[in-house]
Specification:
Length: about 140
């Protein structure tokens, strides 16, 4: 992430985590001004961004000092209802791929170690990377 839209501008951030959701807030040629989940803003070349949508689970719920506090969790459900079967508890800060969002629910795909994958439904309001009432169909 650079401070301006061009290679001559100073590098502000270097992102290591693949698939981190970014909000595009401005465009200039092949450059996109983006905002990350922590609120940092800067410019990235469009080829460094993916069209696949991702989300972070309730990043605003992550305690300031992780050493002594346990991050809150949210529930992933089998269907678009909080009365359906619980599939998993997901810790705040977890990165997930968005498969679909509609009617205040998103279908997420979580990938873990040893080729573990789980797909289920999470309330849209508990995600950073998707706007309220936004419909997504990847």
């Amino acid at each position: 992430m650079r401070v301006g839209p061009g290679r001559d501008y100073q590098v502000q951030w270097l992102y290591i985590r693949k698939g981190l959701p970014m909000e595009i807030i401005q465009e200039f040629g092949n450059w996109r001004k983006v905002r990350d989940p922590n609120g940092n803003e800067g410019w990235m070349l469009h080829s460094l961004l993916s069209g696949k949508r991702a989300a972070i689970i309730t990043p605003w719920e992550i305690p300031a000092k992780k050493s002594t506090a346990i991050s809150p969790t949210i529930v992933m459900y089998e269907s678009r209802s909080d009365k359906s079967r619980m599939l998993a508890r997901i810790e705040a800060g977890t990165l997930a791929l968005i498969e679909k969002c509609e009617d205040d629910w998103c279908t997420l795909l979580l990938k873990g170690r040893d080729n573990f994958e789980i797909s289920g439904y999470v309330k849209q309001a508990l995600l950073w990377g998707v706007y309220p009432d936004e419909t997504i169909d990847n």
